[in-house]
Amino acid sequence: MGKGFRATWDRFQPSNSRGLKPRFIAQGNHVAVLWRHRAENHEIGERIVLPAAGIYRLVDELVVDSRMFHFDIAGLCQVFERQYAQLRVTASESS
């Protein structure tokens, strides 16, 4: 999994709560996956479940291209805004 994705989401998604309920649709060397992006911010007591999709291209049974699409970009941005606001408060309190 990508380092940037893990750096962003690991704190919100303990491995035991990543139930995505995926639906796979394949044709040729492309696979589409419809799933639910689940995350929880324990610091501010917030949970989200947002619809998402991934499109993957395979060559010799290996993923060579991966694209992720979120259907509720505004909802996702609000989650990040609240998280970063909490980080700013925490940083100012420790200064």
Please give a structural write-up.
This protein has 95 residues and is of the alpha+beta class. The protein has a single domain (3-94), classed as Nuclear Transport Factor 2, Chain: A (Roll), CATH 3.10.450.50. The protein contains two helices and four strands. A four-stranded antiparallel β-sheet has the order 1-2-3-4. The longest helix is centred in the last third of the chain and has 22 residues, at 73-94.
Quick structural overview:
The protein has 95 residues and is an alpha+beta fold. The protein has 2 helices and 4 strands.
SSE arrangement:
Layout: H1 3-9, E1 23-27, E2 30-41, E3 46-59, E4 62-70, H2 73-94
Antiparallel strand pairs: 1-2, 2-3, 3-4
Question: Helix tally?
Answer: 2
The topology string of helices and strands comes to HEEEEH
CATH topology: Nuclear Transport Factor 2, Chain: A
List the domain count as a whole number: 1
Low-confidence spans? none
Strand content: 35-45%
Number of strands: 4
Whole-number average pLDDT?
Answer: 81
* CATH class descriptor: Alpha Beta
State the distance separating the first and last CA atoms: 35 Å
> In terms of structural class, how would the helical and strand content be classed?
alpha+beta
Describe the sheet with the most strands: 4 strands, antiparallel
Largest beta sheet: strand ordering:
1-2-3-4
Quaternary state reads: single chain
The radius of gyration is: 16 Å
Considering the chains and any ligands shown, give keywords for the structure:
alpha+beta, elongated, Nuclear Transport Factor 2, Chain: A, four-stranded antiparallel β-sheet, 2 helices, 95 residues
